[in-house]
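G., the chain you wanted modeled:
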Amino acid sequence: MAILTDIVLLAGFLNNLVEWILNNGGLFFLLFIVFAETGLFVGFFLPGDSLLFAAGIYLKKFPEGFYNLHYMLVVLLLIIASVIGNMVGYWFGRKTGPHLYQRNDSWYFKKKHLMRAQEFYDQYGKGTIFLAKFLPIIRTFAPIIAGIVKMDRSTFFMYNMLGSLAWVFSMVLGGYFLEAWVIRQFGFSLTDYIEMIAVGIILVTTVPIFYKLFFAKKHIVPHSDDDPNAVL
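Predicted structure as tokens:
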């Protein structure tokens, strides 16, 4: 029940956040959220999916609050923010290497999230960079794992670009077309029900992840302390 309450509060915060962004021209803030969730391990808790979908619902209003930029230019900037975020995560993984697995937990870093991303990478390989865009928490740590295992840069960039395009377009345009369809068919705007929509998106995208994090049986193979270069 406490988790559900937190989700409802998050949804209300999301609605206020989107309206604040629109009313205050907070384009840079929106871009930073996308960048942080895809590139900084401290950004794993940010509601990227819900924020992008909600932004799609408000898409037609973008020029009013975003310096008169065409809304498709805003979408392009969001894609670029996602690509750059992943590149930063990849660079961080290459620089820190396996030593990140020795890092102690803190309020902004949880080793279990890193290990789950590693398991996902072991299962899906290079395609993880594309698929992870649609999975909260995993999308934050996947580029770091790719850097740790030293995935080929050009291969990483290709999957990063394709994943960013698919993620941003599907979330933003999904919200946009759903809003247009609801107005046309039922005569009301989804902006009046953004909290409930956000709750639904958060539940669909996070419940499976949290189930794996807290309830699924772990299959992590411990690495030897004698081998500082071992990833697992």
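The chain is about 70% helix and 0% strand.

Shout if anything looks off.
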